[in-house]
Amino acid sequence: KSLIFWSQQMNNPSRATGGFNKFDIEWLKYYYIDIIDGYKWAVCKDKESDGTYEKFRLKDIPMYGMIDPGGFSEIKLMKSGSRNALLIGGQPKETKKKFIFYAWAGKFGKPSEFIDRIFEAHEKWSPLQWRIDPCGQQGYIYGDIKEARIERGEHLPISQLPYETKKDVKDDDIQACMNPMANGFIYIQESMKDLIGEIKQYPQGLTKDLVDMMGKLNKFYWSRNESTLRKRSERPQHSYEVSRITGY
């Protein structure tokens, strides 16, 4: 199936050279959440070869959250043209299908409002781990989040993403999503307008906060075969980030 992606790229030089959008919006697959026998399920909207619709119980999907702080009214905490972004996704075991369950981007007047949003998302989706971009003012927000979880008495596992100095690493991570998306493995909800807009306009769009977080999710937690491949390597850092005294 990977040949589908590369043949499309070769037959569309304008996309390959960055003149237009690198993603084809028709590559996206969609799902909806349904309640079956008291459990929430992600139900794919595209039919399988046998005419059925594949579904996955949310409780069984390892989820991970990505955080990119960037948009506050305080000048010293604002990255030009950037927004705060939160994205939660997961990959069911034994499948190549990958799901985005939560995608939000926007600006707040102060960091505490963004932190409230993070805890709200955590309460609803309970990701196993949050990762935060370490660049710029993100270190300041990271410290506030760790303090907030102690004050609230809530368990919110969080650690920083590796600091990377390689040129164009953000775009490399984003474009690494092209292959799985072109092969129909990335599923989102049709209500995720901000994410769809960024995908549709990349790389010409003014913002790419959500697609950047999607790229990071793909890089660190999504895999071609099993979503659990990276979990073992994440455990040492996760344990380090949890206080032995408070458990937060």
Molecular shape:
globular
Query: What is the name of the CATH class?
Result: Alpha Beta
- Which percent range fits the helix content? 25-40%
- The strands making up the biggest β-sheet line up spatially as 3-2-1-9-6-5-4-7-8
Poorly predicted runs are 1-19, 226-240
The second-level CATH architecture is 2-Layer Sandwich
Number of strands: 9
Q: How many independent structural domains?
A: 1
The radius of gyration over CA amounts to 18 Å
Multimer state: single chain
* Biggest beta sheet summary: 9 strands, mixed
Structural class: alpha/beta
Mean pLDDT: 83
A few lines on this structure:
This is Terminase large subunit gp17-like C-terminal domain-containing protein. The chain contains nine helices and nine strands.
Secondary structure elements and their pairing?
Blueprint: H1 2-10, H2 13-16, E1 29-36, E2 39-47, E3 53-57, E4 63-68, E5 84-90, E6 98-106, H3 111-125, E7 129-132, H4 138-152, E8 158-160, H5 169-175, H6 178-182, E9 186-188, H7 193-201, H8 209-220, H9 231-241
Model description:
The model is unreliable at 1-19 and 226-240 (pLDDT under 50). This protein has nine helices and nine strands. 32% of the residues are buried. Helices cover 35% and strands 22% of the residues. It has one domain (25-241): Nucleotidyltransferase, domain 5, CATH 3.30.420. It has helices spanning 2-10, 13-16, 111-125, 138-152, 169-175, 178-182, 193-201, 209-220, 231-241, and strands at residues 29-36, 39-47, 53-57, 63-68, 84-90, 98-106, 129-132, 158-160, 186-188. With 248 residues, it is α/β, with parallel strands linked by helices.
